[in-house]
Amino acid sequence: MPGETAPDPYRVWLSEVMLQQTTVAAVTPRFERFIARWPTVEALAGARDEHVLSEWAGLGYYARARNLIACAREVAARGGFPDTEEQLRQLPGIGAYTAAAIAAIAFGRRALVMDTNVERVVARLHAIEAPIAESKPRLRELLDMMTPVERAGDFAQAMMDLGATICRPKSPDCPACPLNAGCSAFASGEPERFPAPKRKAVRPARYGVAHWIERSGSIWLVRRPAKGMLGGMAALPGPDWTDEPAPAETALVHVSHVFTHFHLELAVVASDSPTGEGWWQPLDRLVDAGLPTLYRRAADSVLEARSALAA
Ligand code: SF4
């Protein structure tokens, strides 16, 4: 909270990495588990890759988990987090935003911490109508003019909180806003109009087949290659995904899953023989396998379809 002792850089870093495009509600319990299991960056640096990847399962964006491990090891090796934006940006997986957030919140440095909530607040204060993607440089300039030298971390957190709780995308609570006296969007009477929404991107479709190989209450799982989508994660075996639908096979279930740049139509088909290097995972301990959301949903769908048939 603003005004309290500067937070531990490890916690700031971990929460910011987890929150990149994942909601606070989804992150909070996972963050607590991570901290309980690895209370320091040194502890995380010493963890085995597969344990961290399993703990990350369901949070998506697995490249982030791999960068998390690499970053923890680098920080532990150098004896702690650096305290400037410039040095923080040299670390794996730390981009401009995360470096600014750690520098401001953990080290009290003056830095421009601009997440989507802050972008919206600044756009509204100045009634900037263009979609955010088109006005970022201007928004940065305006945030720069507002950002104080003293208590820059408190300012950053206050702006993020204001955007998350009061200056919400829909129905901003302008009467309760401490900045309403100088807000051009409020003055216009239609604060929600600012900024304009971005044009929706059409996500292309990709297609995949996953094999459901079951024996004596267990299913055959494999680990995906370290590089590429869901790299290093546990998975149902199957061929590479393609841009064209696979020839029709009788599927047990179909699962649609949205990734950042495409959506995947996955057909889960029954198969007899285990393929690739893998292991038998007992179905009653599926949760321990660390399956990412796609495969967890696929497995749950097969099991649900089966119990519906048995009912
Ligand atoms: S007055 Fe309303 S639109 Fe302006 S910053 Fe505050 S909550 Fe947002």
Shape: globular
Classified by CATH, the class of the domain at 1-111 is Mainly Alpha
Structural class by sheet pairing and helices: alpha+beta
- Classify the helix fraction into a percent range: 40-55%
What percent of residues are in strands?
A: 5-15%
How many distinct beta strands? 7
Oligomer: single chain
Kindly identify the CATH topology of the domain at 1-111: Endonuclease III, domain 1
The CATH homologous superfamily name of the domain at 1-111 equals Hypothetical protein, domain 2
- Please mark out the parts with pLDDT under 50 across 5 or more consecutive residues, or reply none: none
Major β-sheet annotation: 4 strands, antiparallel
CATH hierarchy: architecture of the domain at 1-111: Orthogonal Bundle
Ligands in the structure?
A: iron/sulfur cluster
Look at the structure and give the mean pLDDT: 91
Q: H/E order of the elements?
A: HHHHHHHHHHHEEEEEEEH
Rg over CA atoms, rounded to whole Å, is: 23 Å
Termini separation: 51 Å
Structure notes:
The strands form 2 sheets. Strands 2, 3, 4 and 7 form a 4-stranded antiparallel sheet that branches. The protein has helices at residues 9-19, 24-37, 41-45, 49-56, 62-78, 85-88, 96-105, 116-125, 132-146, 152-165, 184-188, 293-310, and strands at residues 205-212, 214-215, 218-223, 234-235, 253-258, 263-270, 278-282. Helices cover 42% and strands 12% of the residues. The mean pLDDT is 91. It is α+β, with helices and mostly antiparallel strands. Strand 2 and strand 3 form a beta hairpin. It contains 12 helices and 7 strands. Among the domains are: 1-111, Endonuclease III, domain 1 (Orthogonal Bundle); 205-310, Alpha-Beta Complex (Nucleoside Triphosphate Pyrophosphohydrolase). The structure holds iron/sulfur cluster. The site of iron/sulfur cluster (SF4) has 14 residues, from helix 8 and helix 11. Residues 121, 124-125, 166-167, 172, 174, 177, 179-180, 183, 185-186, 191 line the site of iron/sulfur cluster.
